[in-house]
Design a protein that fits this description.
6-stranded antiparallel barrel, 7 helices, alpha+beta, about 25% strand, about 350 residues, 3-stranded antiparallel sheet, about 25% helix
Length: about 350
């Protein structure tokens, strides 16, 4: 409540009409739960002390209805969507038509039209090759034949034997006989012990036999001991031995059971530093297969410091029907060096 004095009031209307208008505005409802503060009239307690009265008039507001249950609404919406999906026709992909969504009749029609399309394409090609449309010129233009590639013909499949895969031993078991040689070693042109100039060799003793034994022992937990001699060198000629057939049969049995076999090979006639006077190097057979009708054995070569060369897939010994032995090149050795199986070493 505010008092007014000296007949000057900031809320006092200037006339009766203005007071009535102001009173009518005050009685109108205002937004919100209460109508707010409104001037509803003036009560004069004397000529010099008029008083204005402020009233808080409550407003009757209708409360909203309770909200519907969320799960009921969701269930009703899901039911409506399911009904709509059931009434929707299937797309061509849902109906089982292949891309580009052709019906079976359209597919059959397109297959029938393929010969006609091929004939039109051939005719167009002949016209392009023969601008004057001469029959003699309508043949396809000659093409240069590509040069034959070195190696087996293209499309030759590697057919493994009944023994299994081409290689059953992981390359992680491979070892080198030059363990003391650093990987970055390179040969140098220097003076040799005999006083002549030549390329330097590895700086320690070469022990291929014990390296192959360690490799098999690490893989199969046994050291090869039993020997089967296949060939012997006599007057620089390789002569087959009676135990060759039995040794090869046992070798195929080991390959079938995926057991690596240590073998001795001959590559230089006239050497006699091994007890059989035939073997110059030892390698490990790790698989077998057939290429272009020729049987072969794949091997790991320890005579290198390069793992990729020692386990190269091209390290194979092929069967020679004329000599009855197995021979092949090692990609870890010089190009002219050919390995020939001389002896086998089993468990």
């Amino acid at each position: 409540m505010v008092s007014l004095s000296n007949r000057q009031s900031v809320l006092r209307p200037t006339s009766n009409r203005a007071a009535v208008t102001q009173l009518g505005r005050a009685q109108q409802p205002l937004p919100g739960p209460l109508s707010g503060r409104a001037l509803v009239g003036q009560i004069g307690l004397g000529r010099l002390h008029p008083v204005s009265i402020d009233l808080l008039t409550p407003r009757q507001v209708a409360l909203p209805a309770p909200l519907p249950d969320f799960y009921r609404v969701k269930a009703a919406v899901d039911q409506q969507q399911a009904l709509a999906a059931a009434r929707r026709p299937l797309t061509p992909k849902e109906a089982g038509y292949p891309i580009p969504f052709l019906s079976p009749a359209e597919q059959a029609q397109r297959r029938q039209a393929q010969p006609q399309v091929a004939a039109r394409a051939t005719h167009s090609y002949q016209q392009l090759a023969n601008p004057f449309h001469f029959t003699s010129w309508a043949q396809p233009l000659p093409q240069h034949k590509p040069r034959p590639k070195v190696g087996p013909p293209p499309g030759t499949a590697m057919v493994p034997l009944a023994s299994g895969a081409d290689c059953f031993m992981p390359t992680s078991f491979w070892q080198t006989q030059y363990e003391e040689t650093p990987l970055d070693w390179k040969p140098k042109w220097e003076k040799q012990k005999n006083g002549k100039m030549g390329w330097s060799t590895f700086n320690h003793w070469k022990n291929c036999c014990n390296t192959c034994k360690r490799m098999i022992n690490q893989s199969q937990k046994y050291v090869p001991g039993t020997q089967a001699q296949l060939l012997l060198e006599v007057n620089k000629q390789l002569v087959a031995q009676p135990s060759r057939k039995a040794g090869l049969t046992k070798l195929d049995d080991y390959m079938a059971r995926k057991i690596p076999v240590m073998i001795g090979v001959d590559y230089k006639p006239g050497t006699t530093y091994n007890h059989d006077h035939t073997t110059e190097h030892f390698i490990v057979l790790v698989g077998s297969g057939i290429e272009n009708g020729r049987k072969y054995y794949r091997f790991f070569d320890v005579g290198t410091i390069n793992r990729s060369k020692g386990t190269d897939p091209r390290n194979r010994l092929y069967y020679d029907a004329q000599t009855g032995s197995y021979a092949g090149r090692s990609w870890a050795a010089p190009e002219k060096r050919i390995y020939t199986i001389a002896q086998l070493r089993f468990h």
